[in-house]
Amino acid sequence: MNTTQGTGAGSARYHPVRVVLVDDHAIFRSGLKADLDAGIQVVGEAATVEQAIAVIAQQRPDVVLLDVHLPGGLGGGGREVIAGSAALLSSTRFLALSVSDAAEDVVAVIRAGARGYVTKTISGTEITDAVFRVAGGDAVFSPRLAGFVLDAFGTAPADIADDELDKLSARELEVMRLIARGYSYKEVAKELFISIKTVETHVSAVLRKLQLSSRHELTKWAAERRLL
After folding, report:
1. Rounded-to-integer distance, Cα 116 and Cα 136, Å
2. Residue partners of 193: CB distance under 8 A and separation at least 6
3. What pLDDT was estimated at residue 122?
4. Which residues pair with 44 in a beta bridge?
5. From the CB of residue 174, how many other CB atoms can be counted at a distance below 10 Å?
6. DSSP character for 70?
7. pTM recorded for the entire structure
8. Which of 125, 139, 123 is nearest to 38 (CA)?
9. Closest CA to 51 of 78, 27, 31, 28
10. What torsion do the CA atoms of 1, 98, 85, 24 make, to the nearest 10 degrees?
11. Which pLDDT tens digit goes with each residue over 188-198?
């Protein structure tokens, strides 16, 4: 899969991330293409469920930017597109991009296999960063929406081993919670009044101490323990 080195819009990139845009509004797709970083290559577009499944199968992109509500198919919208592309989920990642911030929409597409969900109020810089992060294996959510996912997938409280939490300093625990909620490094730095470099150092330490390999695993780890 074409990917990047590291995550975030400022990271060094060696290959463009190949993206398919799925939205039933052509004007929105045009505006989105204009806002995306040069390191993102739009290789296909679709406006309906059927078109999306066909284009994704043909292009096998790294990331699909997917609207939740789409015409066509059996009425399942973005969830139906993911289901129809199930054979590609190991190599193609889906990032939902929608005007909807309803809990049922968020949970439905995440259950179907999407790796993130952001709303259309996001800026061009932020959506670019989200695409690179998803391509790199992270789970990405608009901060307010992360709670819906945690509620849906972390409903069974797990016993927390004291030695797991004892490995983390108070600051590392703060950083871990924000990162697991979907905050970018820049947002964490602003929230905690520390530098982005310090955030990166803390995240590396957290992943190492908890023996995790990605933000996606960290989000799952935190949700299972009801830490957020």
Report:
1. 12
2. none
3. 87
4. 20
5. 16
6. -
7. 0.64
8. 125
9. 78
10. -110
11. 888 888 999 99
